[in-house]
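In this notebook, the sequence line spells out the residues, with the fold written below as integer tokens. This is how one looks.
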Amino acid sequence: MSRIITPTIINSISKCLKSDVYWELMNTCRQTNMFLEHRSKARSRDLLNLPRNLLRTVMGIITGHNTLSRHMNIMGLNNDPLCKHCEGELETSLHFISQCSYYVTTRMSIWGNPVLDPDDMKRIRVKDLARFILKSRRFLVNEISN
């Protein structure tokens, strides 16, 4: 079997990577798929317009690579993956943004709903997610404001 990479193969891979079909068929990036239904230049622009530390926090929420208890537990940096506000619930990005009872008022003020469903998660605008993160005060202020 030949292992030569031809321009045809490169073009096929390039088209695949640029298509929304590739994104939809991926079975990885589970957390990110909860927030991003498809690629969007407007969303990319909105993300890149955020201050650097806020961008880092927003991307951490979107990807699941953040300082919430579940991820810190996976990394071996804490012993308890549960939300300190909700008995028995894992503190994940999904829980933090859409379900945690501690942040009901914050969700109501930004999205007008006490709880968000999975379809709502895909429609969250970058600026609203950033506002929620800042308003929640869940992350250190100096971690975000610089």
Residues 7-18 form the longest helix (12 residues).
